[in-house]
Amino acid sequence: MAHKKGQGSTRNGRDSKPKMLGVKRYGGQVVKAGEIIVRQRGTQFHKGPGVGMGVDHTLFALVAGQVKFEGPVNKRRVAVYAVVETAVETVEA
User: Fold this and answer.
1) Percent of the chain topping pLDDT 70
2) Which domains does the chain have, with CATH numbers?
């Protein structure tokens, strides 16, 4: 083993670009089909009804609706439920 540290290397100093992980749509927000809800490494969040999972564990909406986070902390689940829209009729006077 060397008994002196030696010169500092100029081959250091690189950094990887940010991966932009995390929750993109929160509970109660309305999403369209195909919108990304969570970008993650591994399954911190599992898919529920109305949600698909990509090969990189990205969760996305399969249907248009409202996002809901369910379950206990150790088995968090993301679901998308269709929003029931009420028809508003205008009354002409």
Assistant:
1) 81
2) 22-81 (2.40.50.100)
